[in-house]
Amino acid sequence: MRKPYNTPHRTHVVKTRLTVEEHELFLNQCRTYGISQSEMLLIIDDFGMERGTEYGLEQVYNVIDSRYRSGKPLIVTTNLTLDSLQNPQDTAHARIYDRLLEMCAPILFTGENFRKQTATEKLDRLKGMLAEQKKGITVAAADIAGKGETAYD
Questions:
Q1: d(CA 42, CA 100)
Q2: Is 92 left (phi over 0), alpha (psi -120 to 50) or beta?
Q3: Phi and psi of 115, rounded to 5°?
Q4: Please, what sign has the CA dihedral across residues 125, 131, 136, 137?
Q5: Which pLDDT tens digit goes with each residue over 35-91?
Q6: Which neighbouring-strand residues pair with 23?
Q7: How far apart are CA 92 and CA 61, in angstroms?
Q8: pTM
Q9: Which residues are bridge partners to 47 per DSSP?
Q10: Which is nearest to 82 in space by CA: 59, 44, 110, 120?
């Protein structure tokens, strides 16, 4: 029987590339809370965006299959649709997706793409700055023209 997780203290994001010292510090902090390495939660962000090479798929399969066989906790985020997970393009993807769908409950999040909104706001600010700069150049050129000078004087 698995023991239930006491999650209030587990709100920290763990970097994926740790130095040896950072890794030891992390493990010591986990031990403080009574968390063994075998109980650690794995979060895979942006699943499906990895390189589609045979080697890459095999590595993804190994990670997913290891979690599947061990029953360790797993959270996966993806932009893949439920339909694409249920109807994979080939056997290599089917092996991975079948395990994910058995282990994880799909939850659909909808809403505005905040990255597009942020990009639009930045583009609008840039256009405004360029318009101001262009206006300043036009005024400076008019001042120079009014004095009979050239921009190269």
A1: 13
A2: alpha
A3: -70, -40
A4: positive
A5: 776 667 888 888 888 777 888 888 889 989 988 988 888 889 998 999 999 999 899
A6: none
A7: 8
A8: 0.55
A9: 78
A10: 110
